[in-house]
Amino acid sequence: KIAVLHQPPGTGKMLMAEAVTEHLERPLYIVGFPELLTVPSQLESELSEILNLATIWGATVLFDGGDV
After folding, report:
1. In a domain? residue 67
2. What is the mean pLDDT of each run of 10 residues along the chain (68 residues)?
3. Rounded CA gap, 62 and 31, in Å?
4. Residue 4 lies in a domain
5. Residue 14, domain member (yes or no)
6. Residue 3's closest CA among 65, 61, 44?
């Protein structure tokens, strides 16, 4: 399942993600978009690794800073 939270900074997006994952009793894996996009040629392999780890851990992935 996918949820997109798009609001101005300081409106509680991170808190919402933390509350939902705590309620679901799942770990929250936070990925910063700025760090992810430092080497564009490696984006696909990095995303694949992130999603594989999230699957193994049963984690929810939060891509933070997607407005850059």
Report:
1. yes
2. 84 93 96 83 91 96 79
3. 6
4. no
5. no
6. 61
